[in-house]
Structure formats: C-alpha cells, structure tokens
Design brief:
This protein is an alpha/beta fold and 180 residues long. The chain has eight helices and five strands. The chain has helices at 2-10, 47-54, 61-66, 71-78, 104-119, 131-142, 154-160, 162-177; strands at 29-30, 34-38, 86-90, 125-129, 148-151. Strands 1-3-2-4-5 form a five-stranded mixed β-sheet, with helices on both faces.
C-alpha cells in the first residue's frame, strides 16, 4: 500500500510548486516505526541523487545523508538511532524553491498524503520536527492515538547552542526509548 501511495505522491499536481522543482515530489523514507515529520525536502546536494530522484527513484539513505551537509545525519546519529528503525516524511512533498516556507495552500494540499502515510504504515511514535510540522499537524494527529513529541528543527538547535541541543537530544532519546 505504501508503494502505491508513494507513486501517487510523485504524480501529484495539486498545486504549482512542482513546476519550480528539479526533482519529483518525494514521498519519504519508510523503514522503521519511529516517524520523523519535517517541513519539506531540501534539494539534493549531489548529482547522483539528483539524477536518481528525477528518474523516479525512491527516497534513499544516500539522498537523506547528503541533505543539509549531513546535519540530518548528525541529528540521527546523536540520537543513537539506526536508519533501519526510523521513517522520515515531510508535510510538503516538494522541495521549495530557494528553501522558502511553504504557503498554507501547499501545506493543505499535502497534509492528506502525510496522514495516509501514517495510517498505512505501522508507526509506534511520531516526532514533529520544527514549528511548521507542529503548527499544521499536531492537532490533526492527536486524534490518532499515537504518542507525539514536538521538537525544534535540528538546524535551529545547532544555531542556538550546545546546551539547548543536548537538552533536546536528551528529551527525544527519553521519548523514543519508550517506543522502540
């Protein structure tokens, strides 16, 4: 079911944001029961991932680890997590041109896909990463009877200092340990 849904996401044309992107809308990475939900995918940093994604390849670890100069990888590693026990998706499925914040209509067009991903994949807990994920999904997902934790985006935590980052990592580790 998740593969069929992912193909539907790649073909989505509900809004015009897909016109400004260099790759297809990205459904996410689904391996494990701990689901991270972010704002939107970033543009790939390396040409190989870019070409694979243009041709409809699945979101893969090499693409994920290349994003944002490996800050996502650092975050996952600092949490002590293995890539095989996590899943990652975004509210907005298309990378936003110049990394602008997505408009409400774009978010609304993608939210139903995110909800379908959650109910069609076995998830034990959800981490909403960043203010947009929290603002647009928390109340809707609260009805699903799944444990949810909201945390600031890891890039924000890196900017505000080591202590805040370590405190957030500790909070997330404690939360995740209950649902692994």
């Amino acid at each position: 079911m998740i593969k069929k849904l992912n193909n539907k996401i790649r073909k989505c044309r509900k809004c015009d944001c897909y016109r400004d992107i260099i790759i297809l809308p990205q459904p996410g990475y689904f391996k494990g029961k701990i689901l991270f939900i972010f704002q939107n995918p970033a543009y790939p940093k390396n040409k190989k991932s870019d070409e694979n994604l243009k041709n409809g390849a699945d979101f893969d670890i090499s693409y994920l680890t290349s994003l944002k100069s490996s800050t996502l990888s650092k975050f996952i590693n600092d949490l002590g997590l293995d890539w095989n026990i996590i899943s990652i998706t975004n509210i907005v499925k298309c990378p936003m041109k110049d990394n602008i914040s997505p408009y409400d209509t774009i978010i609304d067009n993608c939210k139903s896909y995110t909800l379908l991903q959650i109910v069609n994949f076995e998830i034990s807990c959800i981490l909403l990463v960043g203010s947009i994920a929290k603002e647009y999904l928390f109340s809707m997902l609260s009805a699903l009877d799944l444990p949810i934790l909201t945390v600031p985006h890891y890039s924000h935590l890196f900017r505000i200092g080591d202590l805040a980052y370590k405190l957030s990592i500790s909070k997330v580790k404690q939360f995740i340990s209950k649902y692994q």
